[in-house]
Write a structure and sequence with these properties.
Layout lengths: L5 E5 L8 E8 L5 E2 L4 H13 L9 E5 L8 E8 L8 H17 L4 E5 L10 H15 L19 E5 L5 H26 L7 H15 L2 E5 L1 H7 L2 H7 L7 E7 L7 E13 L8 H4 L7 H16 L3 E12 L11 E3 L5 E3 L7 H13 L6 E6 L3 H7 L4 E5 L2 H14 L3 E3 L17 E2 L7 H10 L7 E6 L5 E2 L9 E2 L4 H12 L1
Parallel strand pairs: 1-7, 2-5, 2-6, 6-7, 10-11, 10-14, 13-17, 14-18, 15-16
Antiparallel strand pairs: 2-3, 4-5, 8-9, 9-11, 12-13, 15-18, 19-20
Length: 503
């Protein structure tokens, strides 16, 4: 759960900071790096040689300082970062999170560590502080709301003190402030995805949206089933009609002061639970389906952060919330649904429901003629997981330059996103004999045919990117600061994209 972690800075080196544990970085086959202090660096280099610690990436060496040595930290943890010429900020985020969890296991409440400096390569102090903050907060995140005992992460850890060396204080503060915003937003998205589906229904998500509006000064509008019916939203209503929890369409608007540089819509798929409907999943296939609303979680978490970063962009957050259940009124394979933009869809598989929801939401976004760009996030296809594995999202769209813009933002944010093709020739595989299109294609290229389906509901002239986050949205194992369960994937990319769009 999102828990406050105090991060403060001190100019100079680590030697003057008292703490339960000091974390010092070291590259492979080299001594401690960064503003450590000559005496501490020399002593730790000696310890590293004695223990034959090579500084391999992710390696830890824990040393208890003898009382007679009068060092400021009772213990030191040397964190290996591997070869210096292979160093990246993303690697630092990952390994720092692990090191802080180790510190927590050892009961450390106050940890001292060093800011990356020129000795680690050409890294701006602001970027170093941003990565440090994200690694610390996201790396120690735990969702323990329903546990009787908290797990290691932040059971003990309360405070981090950063030795900043000669770095400009304003740059360091800017990095830490932004890192806290992005990390808190990501943690909020994780909390939403980790909530049980029986607790987080479409109606509850609508309530959270209203709270977000009140707390953040954003405009919120929630469309209920009767209004969606008048608007002709056959897709989201069809998906939700088998459930006792009716669907909702949520709209949150952020307006900057002055003339906006762009007008953007963020669209999130929000299946609070996906049983597959009448095309029911296996019990194993349903185990993680509370995560099928991860796209909407990323959107609402990003919207909450916008007043704090204040981009010069008008942003509309749209979330199509529904629950896909096999009730007596559930849609059947072979049914035909009419979407908001007037196109008809033959339902061949009720488990291909996310695209039906997004069809209406994208159609609604397309009614705003001054809207210039839209990006949707969806746990859409297993085919994308087959293509890119569990740690990366694929992005495609109707404008390659726009897709590249999203990919660049993801790279700077530290999230793995890869551009995918959108072969128009594959559209023949979603043609229907009885309707305009059908909601499934052939077995192969499923991520592409799903994206082509969505393209049918994006108006001409609207730049559109589709991010399939089925792989990284929910983890079944930990990859350092990417935790088991909801990961909050996409939040940092969206924030970076909107910041870039302000320029």
């Amino acid at each position: 759960m999102s828990v406050d972690l105090k991060i403060e800075t001190r100019p100079g080196d680590l030697s003057g900071i008292e703490a339960d544990l000091g974390i010092v970085i070291a590259f492979k086959d080299q001594g401690p790096a960064g503003p450590v202090g000559a005496a501490v660096a020399a002593r730790l280099a000696e310890v590293m040689r004695g223990d034959r610690f090579e500084g391999r990436a992710g390696g830890h060496l824990l040393w208890h300082a003898p009382p007679g040595e009068s060092l400021s930290c009772r213990r030191y943890l040397v964190l290996g970062l591997g070869r210096r010429d292979e160093f990246t900020l993303e690697r630092y985020r990952r390994h720092l999170g692990d090191a802080l969890v180790t510190a927590d296991r050892h009961g450390a409440e106050r940890v001292a560590l060093t800011l990356l400096d020129d000795s680690t390569g050409p890294i701006a102090p602001r970027d170093a502080a941003l990565a440090l903050t994200e690694g610390a907060i996201l790396g120690t995140y735990r969702f323990d709301k329903y546990r009787s005992e908290p797990r290691p992460g932040r059971r003990h850890l309360k405070e981090i003190v950063v030795a900043t060396g000669q770095a400009p204080a304003a740059d360091v503060k800017a990095g830490i402030d932004l890192g806290r915003i992005t990390s808190d937003a990501t943690s909020f998205a994780r909390d939403l995805v980790n909530e049980p589906a029986g607790t987080l229904t479409p109606e509850v998500m609508a309530g959270i949206a209203h709270e977000t509006g009140r707390d953040s000064g954003l405009t919120v509008r929630v469309f209920e089933p009767d209004e969606m019916r008048r608007m002709g939203m056959g897709g989201i209503l069809g998906v939700g009609q088998g459930s006792d929890n009716p669907p909702r369409l949520i709209q949150i608007d952020y307006a900057p002061g002055g003339k906006p540089a762009r007008r953007v819509a963020l669209v999130g798929k929000g299946l609070t639970f996906d049983s597959g409907g009448l095309s029911i999943k296996t019990s194993e296939g349903m185990e993680t389906m509370k995560c099928d609303m991860a796209g909407s979680a990323a959107v609402i978490a990003t919207m909450r952060a916008l007043p704090k970063i204040a981009p010069r962009v008008h942003v509309m957050g749209l979330m199509g919330m529904a629950e896909n259940m096999p009730g007596p009124r559930a849609i059947r394979p072979g049914d035909v649904l009419k979407m908001m933009n007037g196109k008809t869809v033959e339902v061949r598989n009720t488990d291909a429901e996310g695209r039906l929801v997004l069809a209406d939401v994208l159609s609604y976004a397309s009614t705003f003629k001054d809207l210039q760009e839209t990006v949707d996030l969806a746990t859409l296809t297993g085919a994308m997981v087959v293509a890119l594995g569990p740690m990366a999202a694929g992005v495609t769209g109707n404008d390659r330059a726009y897709v590249d813009e999203i990919v660049r933002a993801a790279g700077r944010a530290g999230e793995a996103v890869w551009p995918m093709p959108l072969y128009g020739e594959y559209a023949e595989h979603i043609k229907s004999d009885i309707a305009d299109i059908k909601n499934t294609g052939i077995r192969y290229g499923g991520a592409i045919t799903a994206a082509l389906f969505l393209r049918e509901f994006v108006r001409q002239g609207l730049r559109w990117a589709h991010m399939d986050i089925a792989g990284p949205a929910f983890g079944d194992k930990e990859y350092s600061y990417i935790k088991r369960g909801g990961t909050g994937f996409g939040v940092r990319t969206l924030i970076r994209y909107l910041q870039d769009a302000s320029a």
